[in-house]
Design brief:
mainly alpha
């Protein structure tokens, strides 16, 4: 097999494994992503707390009110954009991570923690550029508090955004820098920690113990990444979601939004939605990396069987 054929085979396996990992993760963990977004869009105004029946005081309260006012299917509002995006998004993330990893070897024969972190940063920024339009549509759908049966379709929301604001920084690419910062920082920590720690903790021969080892490292990677990048996630939700006063843009730039939220609502507001985010991306991070590893190994064995 030539070098070109080998590289194409590896890329195909990375894309297949990454896409599978993303699809499985989003189907399982989407409800918590929705809860996270609702918290991040919610202002801390005391007047709002007393007057808005949709004001959420915690994860359980949010889920109860969503079920009461919007129905059971509301937990999967906005799932179509991430399903359409997650398979190519994760495929791109894992495939570009491998390519960036080669670039950041800095002449070394083996990758270092810095290599993994910089490759993760590059992969996160790359996937953010591709997925941001889907994120704008998703946040718009998730912010709608009507009954699930009354929420407009994904396609109609997309057409409305394009018709009213176009494809640029006020339309489908609104909040792009916030998405790049959020995804870049998360994946820098996520991949950097996972691959570095996995190399230090010995593998187990027992399949169950080895599975548990990967789950534990993946879970920790997802939690750490979530804790580090949450202020950028809050900024992204504020920029891409409905503005407090219709027709007036309050949240615009990433750094400006973070500063404004801090000034008006305090430091803790920058960590709104952290618990549902951790509950989603902790296990979600473990699911993605473990599914990726097992699907990649499965595809690798299949390719080997066919070439023998």
């Amino acid at each position: 097999m030539s070098d070109v054929e080998r590289l194409l085979k590896q890329a195909a396996m990375q894309i297949g494994a990454g896409g599978s990992a993303g699809f499985v993760e989003v189907c399982i963990m989407h409800p918590l992503d929705l809860v996270k977004t609702r918290f991040q869009l919610q202002s801390s105004s005391s007047a709002l707390k007393s007057s808005d029946p949709h004001y959420y005081n915690g994860i359980i309260d949010c889920m109860k009110k969503m079920y009461k006012y919007e129905g059971l299917t509301s937990f999967w509002k906005g799932i179509l954009p991430p399903i359409l995006a997650e398979t190519p998004k994760r495929a791109v993330k894992f495939a570009t991570f491998e390519q960036y990893k080669r670039f950041f070897m800095f002449g070394s024969s083996t990758p270092t923690p810095l290599t993994f972190s910089l490759a993760g940063l590059g992969a996160g920024i790359t996937e953010a550029i591709l997925v941001n339009p889907f994120e704008v549509v998703k946040v718009t759908l998730q912010s709608n508090k009507s009954l699930a049966t009354q929420v407009p379709s994904t396609w109609s929301v997309t057409r409305q955004i394009v018709r009213e604001n176009g494809l640029g920084s006020k339309g489908l690419n609104k909040g792009l820098t916030a998405t790049m910062a959020r995804n870049g920082i998360f994946n820098m920590v996520y991949f950097g920690f996972y691959h570095s720690v996995k190399g230090y903790i010995p593998e187990y021969e027992d399949p169950l113990l080895e599975f548990s080892r990967k789950i534990a490292i993946g879970f920790t990677s997802g939690v750490l990444g979530s804790c580090v990048n949450i202020p950028f996630d809050v900024a992204k939700s504020r920029i891409q979601g409905p503005q407090p006063i219709p027709g007036t843009v309050k949240y615009n730039s990433t750094v400006g939004t973070i500063a404004l939220v801090y000034r008006e609502e305090g430091f803790r507001a920058l960590y709104k939605g952290l618990l549902p985010k951790v509950l989603r991306l902790g296990p979600g991070g473990a699911i993605m990396l473990v599914v990726y590893d097992y699907v990649y190994n499965f595809l690798e064995n299949k390719f080997q069987d066919k070439t023998q």
